[in-house]
Amino acid sequence: MYVVAVATAYVEDVLLVDRCLTGEPAATRELFRKHRARVHASLFRVLGGNRDMDDLLQEAFLQVFQSLRGWRAEASLATWIDRVAVRCAYRYLTQRGRRVATDPLTDEDVIAGGDTGGAHRQLARDGVKRLYAALDDLSPAARLAFTLHEIDGRSLAEVAELVGSSVTATKLRVWRARKRIEQVAAEDPVLSEFLAKEAA
Fold first, then answer.
1. DSSP-assigned states of every residue in 156-195
2. How many other β-carbons are positioned within 10 Å of the β-carbon of residue 114?
3. pLDDT over 70 (residue 108)
4. What are the b/e assignments for 72-83, b being 16+ CB within 10 Å?
């Protein structure tokens, strides 16, 4: 059944891309709707609550539609779109000199993990803010590797594929980023408590 589902998804992707390339407006809307939430979530996890998020999402899909002829179906369409989004995030980080203009988080942005108490929400809000401030001190490549692996939950092999690096180099970037975050947390009790709660 799994093989049939993968083959069906592959055929659907090929047909959708063909429709997009012929200029069918309904196809471009369908592709955007199908992949928007996942791309937005990945960008959000890499960059945090960012003022430029809507522009970045738009830029990612603009690049997708401009490059669609380059999709060779060697990887799934979703993986290929993810690579485009990661390149957009990387460009953004390098152009901004690593500092990301974040927005204050709303309650909807904070995943409370079942505890909806005000103190927990405040800790999560402050912890996320401090985590992303610490991420600003990482190189764009280290930040991408760390956030895609540790926050977005992707495997090291998948992260390496998305960023166009070896698994070994990706693993080293994640390790160095984790060590840096741990150093910052050792001097920041709020970040330390937040990370401890997230790891529990």
1. HHHHHHHHT--HHHHHHHHHHHHHHHHHHHHT-HHHHHHH
2. 6
3. no
4. eeeeebeebbbb
Q: How many residues does the chain have?
A: 200
**Model's pTM, two decimal places?**
0.80
Give, in order, the Cα–Cα distances in Å from 117 to each of 46, 81, 109, 152, 196: 27, 37, 15, 25, 18
Rounded CA gap, 146 and 45, in Å? 10
In sequence order, the 6+-apart residues with CB closer than 8 A to the CB of 54 are none
At 136, which amino acid appears?
A: D
Model confidence pLDDT, tens digit, residues 15-65: 999 999 999 999 999 999 999 999 999 899 998 877 889 999 999 999 999
- CB neighbours (10 Å) of residue 47? 24
Tokens in use for 111?
Answer: 């995943």
Which domains can be identified in the chain, with CATH numbers?
Answer: 1-102 (1.10.1740.10), 104-200 (1.10.10.10)
